[in-house]
Amino acid sequence: MASPKTSASLLAALLATSPAHANDDDPRIWLEEVKGERAMEWVEQQNERSTSTLTQDPSFEEIRARLLQAYDSDDRIPTVSKRGHFLYNFWRDAQHPRGVWRRTTLEEYRRDTPSWEVLLDLDALAEREAENWVWSGSTCLPPDYERCLIQLSKGGADATVVREYDIATRSFIEGGFELPEAKSRVSWIDRDTLFVATDFGQGSMTTSGYPRVVKVWSRGTPIEQAEKLFEGAEPDVAVGAYRDHTKGFERDIIYRAITFYTNETWLRDKKGALVRLEKPDSAKVSFWRDYALFELRDDWDLSGRTFKKGSLLAAPLKRWLRGRRDVQVLFEPTPTTSLTSFSGTRNHLLVNSLDNVQSRIEVLTPGKKGWSREALPGLLELGQVSASAVDPDDSDAYWLNLTGFLTPSTLSYGVIGQGQAEPLKQLPTFFRAEGLAVSQHFATSKDGTKVPYFQIAPEGLPLDGSSPTLLYGYGGFEVSLLPSYNATNGIGWIERGGVYVLANIRGGGEFGPRWHQAALKQNRHRAYEDFAAIARDLVERKVTSPEKLGTRGGSNGGLLMGNMYTLYPELFGAVVCQVPLLDMRRYHLLLAGPSWMGEYGDPEDPEQWSFIKTFSPYHNVGQAEFPPMLITTSTLDDRVHPGHARKMAHLLLERDEDVLYYENIEGGHGGAANNEQSAHMNALAFTFLWRSLSEAEQVPESTGEGESRP
User: Fold this and answer.
1) For the segment 132-179, what is each residue's pLDDT rounded down to a tens digit?
2) Whether residue 669 lies in the annotated active site
3) What are phi and psi of 67, to 5 degrees?
4) Which of 588, 641, 650, 669 is catalytic?
5) Class of 29-58+437-595+628-694 per CATH?
6) Which residue among 187, 467, 480, 555 is the active-site one?
7) pLDDT digits (tens, 9 = 90+) for 478-518
8) CA-CA distance, 253 to 619, in Å (whole number)?
9) Where are the alpha helices (DSSP H) in 493-555?
10) Which is it for strands 305-307 and 300-302: parallel, antiparallel or unpaired?
11) Better-scored residue on pLDDT, 692 or 696
12) Angle at 42 between CA 36 and CA 44, to 5 degrees
């Protein structure tokens, strides 16, 4: 099959130069040249410095080895998705560092050691093709699922190549559907036709680096001859299309993501015409059998009623398209509850929600008199429980996942209406949890808001401020941080005697859209004030002291770390800042940055820059006594540009601050391309934190005679 004629691939173009802009008078802009000779020479120098500093620590190798052992353990729960008669899984271990794509049956999966059928060995493929392939996923065509579109990235980047694979022959199809490296979105229409949104050449991508054109591509024809179906605007985030293959409810859906939080949706009718689905742009819509399901980010006034933001609504689709607004509320939030997810089986909807960041699950069933509901048993105190459909076309089976900070995850299999779910797999214990206690607390933020956080600490913890404590947060994009069993934190921190704290600050989704929207744009500082309030609360409760309190976060959480470092340096004894945004003056010019302006604002607008600059760490390094900081990123991160981390580290090193910098040469936005790299990166972070905090001297409290804590 002919491949598209495109300009240089997205990633290749980004590696070549830094983006030009009228305000590029930054003296460190050369560090934005991802593979620039000068930039890479600096990176190598910093990597050598950080490696020699941290890997020589006596604890580093022990932590790294234990983490790698956990990541490669054969006792991990294989996460599966059911397609037809098989359960599919992608698996990495010591023998398969790049991983194998494999499948088994439900009967085999019930066994302690299932027999797996390997479909694609990525290590063998990488060796054969001399390419650093990293698995990015597969899309297979129902109902037999024998033809698949495999997505592979080079080194872990978001940009992928797409290649058609035949499961029957265990081989890629020569002359089959194939796309070169780009941030593509592909979906099967039928065996010989695809929806394709990719880099079709000049003008086909949004300013965020995602496709803005969708085409229908027929087998045997050059992609240049593909029929254009839909085109978005250049400032959009992305567009795409897919076919819902649910038997009896087949339909084609086209979507346009205008911003991260607004969208438009069309359905393609039998004549090929596009019919726009009426709804607020801020509402997300999905489809389950003959229903349209609306998730509200804003209040919706409809037919004389006001539906609250954070609600889930259902409407019969055919009636909706004819203009009838028959809507039923499936979930309505309260001040303490929020919707987290939902999943449709053949006859029911499983609705997952939170109440004060603790899990609840309901089974909803449509009927002639409306929707009935009942609770799904199996809640876990101070833990997380989630339910999802196994095969929504064919049965009412569901997966039930139970996990907690000290409770190894359990995967169960159940059928709605047939009693309790049957436990199938349980994660082993990877760290010593005896004598540990989990508790939930609330800190009062600057504006009086009560902000929850979880604490994992030894029972009988001495409340004298002496305990090394690690505070983790994110606070953005309506992402919720929930209780889960985390071998990384257990091995690297908790088992060593450290206290671990998970913050549920505004900007996240723990209390639905209102919690997220409270910290958008000009209100961004609320997220930082919340995090600072938790830090102060830990000190006031004498769990720890500023000298013993460390903090860690990545991506948007890396921006959080940058602001803790620049705005609240007195609260922390060490900071780990990973794959971060830090230069908020230029973030919208780098990679996917334009897509985040709905979260942070537009730096090109002087009025908006006036508030954005107040949370741009790169521009707010003042005169203060800063804590030690470790900054890490990935060269091949094509989502958050490594220039953010590089420039901040360079600035701080020029000022002779206590900063270490490490850049993994591959790994994408996840920071690591395989288990070995993940173990190495995490061991660096924990070694840095433990060295900085456990060896710090606790400053005595004020005596009230003129002394004060720094």
Assistant:
1) 999 999 999 999 999 999 999 999 999 999 999 999 999 999 999 999
2) yes
3) -65, -45
4) 669
5) alpha beta
6) 555
7) 999 999 999 999 999 999 999 999 999 999 999 999 999 99
8) 43
9) 513-517, 525-540
10) antiparallel
11) 692
12) 100
